[in-house]
Design goal:
Blueprint: H1 10-20, E1 31-36, H2 51-60, E2 65-67, E3 73-75, E4 78-83, E5 89-94, E6 98-100, E7 106-109, H3 112-125, H4 132-135, H5 145-150, E8 160-164, E9 167-171, H6 193-196, H7 210-221, E10 234-240, E11 244-249, E12 263-268, H8 272-281, E13 287-290, H9 292-299, E14 309-310, E15 317-323, H10 335-342, H11 345-354, H12 357-362, H13 369-372, E16 384-385, E17 388-389, H14 394-397, H15 411-427, E18 434-440, H16 447-462, E19 467-473, H17 479-484, E20 491-497, H18 525-542, H19 550-566, E21 570-574, E22 579-582, H20 613-631
Parallel strand pairs: 1-12, 18-19
Antiparallel strand pairs: 2-3, 4-5, 5-9, 6-7, 8-9, 10-11, 11-12, 13-22, 14-22, 15-20, 15-21, 16-17
Helix pairs in contact: 11-15, 18-19
């Protein structure tokens, strides 16, 4: 679906297009200009989860709720809501709001049925983010598209209903304490039947077969900016695939007084990461991509040292090292020998306590490594209860054996576990050195160097007579399906993106049938006992659903996560970092590490000059204090 263009006289053409602004009238408009290199695959926000695709709907559509800059829930398209005493029925009152076209003209009224339309399409087609409906525990949303289309389960039995034009009701299968936080994903946004009828006989969808739904969705995926309707802070005034797109402020938006940037202009260029820095310095764009190499160079220049700052660290993706318990790699890497080793707890602990995680992170982010490292899979600043961040619970502090920010790096302890593992593995029939296949994606910058660092650092510490770490390049295409999901690695850094505001979301990659290490498939009695203990702990934690017992719920999830760490089934790593140059204060924008909040420009203002690192750190400190106060 991507359309790329060949750009002639690149610099001149970019200058002309950027100065032209949205719709050609940018000279007197406060405009935020940027380049992008990953093209939009579809404007159908109900059938995508990628950041590139969601940037537009995040700003042009409105969800039932929204978040403020500290992560507090605020009314969005729903002006209010209520919950039944048993926590199973949520009722939202839709505010008086209108739909607008790409010229900013009013074309319709937003109704409760618009939200039902979106949900019915997503569930009957099995759209990209439809998994969020069962994640939110909505009644009969997990039965599958085939059951709904065939009539095996009637749509009327799904817990999503428009009671009247302004009343939307969700019925859950069980209490869901994080329900509200599920509501800012694409498929929870509204879509009018008038829009849907442009792509098929939506009004007669009850007769659609699976093939009809597939054909309908294929047509909807090709929707244009002229066909779309908008109900958010901006409307998409112009869109040319592989060229540029523009969003203009909607003056009729219900909180237009909180929308300060008048226009957002995006210009496509495959070399954006290379060109944007120079254009930013010349004042041709308001934001630029800054690599670690560029950051080091800019920090040494008198004219550039104050033009950028560290990227805001958001706990939306957690990185951790996974051991593979069901290896399917080639015989030359000795999968059977690896099975013996990986099921030995002392072996895993020798790796966990021997790996210098700060050193590894410095390979990709030299200046921010200590701020990025995490000692839990569920990261800091994700959720808190009774004023206590999830990661600050005593059970995690008790696991610490290292000094400083790395709670686990302890060379002496690693050697002790190595010596114990050697004896036990030899008795179990293992041969040395243990081959450890580490595979990296060549499309990810510096991942190869990070793996090489870990190889040398661990082998130097633990000895090449004990381990032989084999660093291997993976395929450039379909890396996940060909490597991680195919179990063709022994030890690898992996990541997972959260879906909602609850520690349960960061337990998802370790559930039965997961593709992050498959310790649930281990046949080793000791490993199986640990895994069963972990799953039982997760079940106990998820059974605590009373909103008044959130602290107890989080403590129970911490107990479960501590099982993974204590037995080194998983090794926490850290968060994404990097650097950015942008003429906005990131702490002015909406905040939530899930959904669309951090993609929105509502609340942000274009700064007269960019934030430097000192100003950024001061703003971060102030934000953290304000968030801590809000959590109390």
């Amino acid at each position: 679906m991507k359309k790329k263009i060949f750009v002639v006289f690149l610099s001149l053409m970019l200058m002309v297009s950027l100065l032209a602004g949205c719709g050609g009238g940018g000279s007197d408009v406060e405009e935020y200009r940027s380049l992008y290199s990953s093209d939009v695959a579809t404007l159908n926000y109900l059938n995508t989860t990628t950041t590139a695709d969601m940037e537009i709907p995040a700003n042009t559509q409105e969800w039932l709720i929204q978040y403020d800059s500290l992560g507090n829930v605020l009314p969005g398209m729903a002006e209010s809501w209520t919950t039944s005493e048993d926590g199973l029925v949520w009722t939202f009152t839709i505010r008086d709001a209108k739909w607008y076209n790409n010229a900013g003209e009013e074309v319709g009224t937003v109704t409760a049925q618009d939200f039902v339309n979106a949900a019915e399409y997503a569930l009957k087609f099995d759209a990209a983010a439809s998994y969020m409906f069962p994640a939110a525990k909505i009644k009969n949303s997990s039965v599958g598209a085939e059951a709904l289309v065939s009539g095996e389960v009637s749509w009327e039995d799904v817990g999503i209903k428009a009671i009247d034009e302004k009343t939307l009701e969700f019925t859950l299968e069980a209490p869901c304490p994080y329900f509200l936080s599920c509501l800012t994903y694409g498929c929870f946004a509204p879509m009018s039947a008038d829009v849907l009828n442009q792509f098929g006989d939506w009004d007669n969808r009850a007769s659609f077969s699976i093939d009809d739904w597939n054909a309908f969705s294929e047509a909807l995926d090709g929707i244009s900016c002229e066909q779309l309707w908008y109900c958010g802070a901006y409307y998409l005034s112009e869109y040319s695939a592989g060229e540029r797109y523009c969003m203009k402020k909607n003056p009729s938006y219900f909180e237009a007084d909180q929308v300060y940037i008048e226009a957002l202009t995006y210009t496509y260029n495959a070399e954006a990461s290379t060109l944007s820095g120079e254009m930013y310095q010349r004042g041709e764009v308001e934001t630029a991509t800054i690599t670690s190499t560029m950051a080091k160079s800019w920090s040494e220049g008198e004219e550039t040292k104050d033009l950028f700052h560290p990227m805001r660290v958001i706990p939306d993706y957690s990185y951790f090292f996974s051991f593979e318990f069901d290896p399917q790699f080639d015989a030359e890497y000795e999968p059977e020998n690896w099975k013996i080793a990986v099921n030995n707890e002392n072996f895993r602990k020798s790796i966990m306590h021997g790996m210098n995680r700060v050193g590894a992170i410095r390979i990709t982010d030299e200046g921010n490594a200590e701020g990025l490292i995490q000692n839990t899979v569920t990261p800091a600043n994700f959720v808190a209860a009774d004023g206590t961040d999830y990661v600050d619970q005593q059970i995690f502090k008790d696991l610490a054996v290292g000094n400083g920010v790395d709670a686990y790096f302890n060379e002496d302890l690693a050697k002790q576990y190595r010596d114990q593992a050697k004896t036990e593995l030899a008795a179990a029939g293992a041969t040395f050195p243990i081959k450890i296949l580490m595979v990296y994606n060549p499309n990810v910058a510096d991942w190869d160097s990070e793996c090489t660092y870990i190889e040398k650092q661990l082998e130097d510490l633990l000895g090449t007579d004990y381990i032989d770490i084999i660093v291997e390049q993976g395929p450039t295409q379909s890396f996940l399906s060909n490597v991680r999901r195919a179990n063709k690695f022994a030890f690898m850094k992996t990541n997972y993106g959260c879906d909602y505001a609850d520690p349960l979301t960061y337990a998802d990659p370790f559930g039965e049938g997961n593709s992050y290490g498959r310790f649930d498939l281990s046949e080793d009695p000791a490993t199986k006992a640990i895994v069963e203990e972990y799953y039982a702990a997760i079940k106990r934690a998820d059974a605590i659903t009373d909103p008044a017992m959130t602290a107890e719920r989080y403590a129970a999830f911490a107990e479960a996560e501590a099982i993974l760490i204590e037995h080194a089934l998983v090794i926490p790593c850290g968060l994404d970092g990097g650097y950015t140059a942008a003429k906005v204060n990131p702490f002015d924008g909406q905040y939530a590490p899930f959904g669309v909040s951090t993609l929105r420009y509502k609340g942000q203002k274009i700064l007269e000059k960019p934030m430097n690192t000192e100003e950024y750190n001061a703003a971060l400190e102030a934000w953290e204090k304000a968030r801590a106060e809000a959590a109390k």
